[in-house]
Structures are given as C-alpha cells and as structure tokens.
Structure prediction request, 199 residues.
Amino acid sequence: MEIRQANITDINSIVQIHCDAFKGFFLTSLGRDFLKLYYTCFIKSNEAYILCAINKNEEVLGFSAVAQNAHGFNGRLIKKNFFRFCLVAFKLLYTCPQSLVRLARNLKKTGGDEIDNSTYAELYSIGVCSQSQGQGIGKELLSASESEILKRGIRRLSLTTDYYNNDSTLAFYRSMGYEVMYVFIAYPDRKMYRMIKKL
Prediction:
C-alpha cells in the first residue's frame, strides 16, 4: 500500500468510498454531484488536500480530506467556486430543498466559541472502502495527514465526530492521541465533539 496526494482521476473512487462509509450522513444525502464538486475543490485548493491510500493496481482503498485552516474553510471554498456550487444547489432546490437550509446553517457551527480561536487544521473526512476495513488503513491515512500538516508548519489537527453511539470511533481517535476540546451543536440539534491533537 502507498499513500499519495489525490488527483482528479481519483474523484469517483473517493465519492464511492464516502458514500459507502457514511451512509445516512447529511453530506452523503446531498448526492454524488455535490460530493464530486466538494472533493474536487479540496484537490484544487491551495489550502487543503486529499490523501489516498492505493494498492499496487492504483485502486483507491481509502482517503482523508484536510483543510489547513479550519476557521471559515467551507465558506471560502463555496465563495471561490460559487457558480459551480450554485448549479448543484439549483438541482437540490427541486430534489431536496430542506437540505439547502441545513447546509447553510451548518456552515456556522455553534458552541465552544469562547475557547476556540480556530488556529488549527481540520480533518474533514476520512474513509476506507468496505473490502479493506480492519487492515490499519485508516490509521495510516490519519498519520500521513498529520505528517503533511506538520510539513506545512501547522502543529494542531482537529476533527469533529458524533457525541452519541460512537464509542468505537471515539476510541480510535483517542488511541491516536486526540482529546475532546469541546462539545457543540450542529443543525438540527446534532450533538458533536470537537477533538484535537497537538502534533
């Protein structure tokens, strides 16, 4: 297995892994067109990156998506690619209008503002294909993401994860050195942890 920077030809594999790994999650409900655009913007952004774990046949086994500066990243990403997101939003307006409201409200996460100066990078997504689960690929991707952030001069990496019914995921992140920074509420009433690690 090798870990490398993602390129545009990896997009379909990244979206498929996301859909398989995050069934029932809000971002997945926005559809493949949204996810393709979202992850394409990560790859093209100069303040974010995606790493892919690949096998000897160049098949993508997993990925991680990281932004160098968590504060306002999604807002900046949308503004920079405004017209492309508008086209996807127009489709959602007819197929799932309530998702646009939720998307807008989740751009501003609430809670923890009094202790959060947002001077950290953020792991936005990490997923491994179902056939490769349990092989340590997630751990390798997270470690590689941390190393890449350190190369860019950033010494803290954060992530968010669900508060309820999430013991195995919490145990994984804690085993990798992440600690709970605070609890916040995402729209609509979704209780979340923000976790962070000093690198």
Notes: Residues 128 and 136 are 10 Å apart (CA to CA). Residues 109-114 have pLDDT under 50 and may be disordered. The chain has eight helices and seven strands.
